[in-house]
Amino acid sequence: MNTVTLDTTGKLCPFPLIEAKKQMAKLACGDLLVIAYDCAQATESLPRWAAEEGHTVTDFQQTGAAQWQISIRKK
């Protein structure tokens, strides 16, 4: 299993979601995608997208005043 980190800090929505989709398409089943972002809308759109696609959110935390990190395991 691989872990890939995607840093979209400073990029406006929907960029974090678009980049997450592109990166996830390159991963193998079971790989983990860790996304760092500071777009408040992505706190809803990323977990919703993961659930819709059947991926598993393994970690979701606020890392700063307006910064978050989410870990999504590919189904």
Automatic annotation (TrEMBL):
Database matches in SUPFAM superfamilies: SirA-like
Pfam family of the protein (one): TusA
Superkingdom classification of source: Bacteria
Boundaries of every UPF0033 domain copy: 6-30
Family recorded in the similarity comment: Belongs to the sulfur carrier protein TusA family.
Entry protein name: SirA-like protein
Species this protein is from: Shimwellia blattae (strain ATCC 29907 / DSM 4481 / JCM 1650 / NBRC 105725 / CDC 9005-74) (Escherichia blattae)
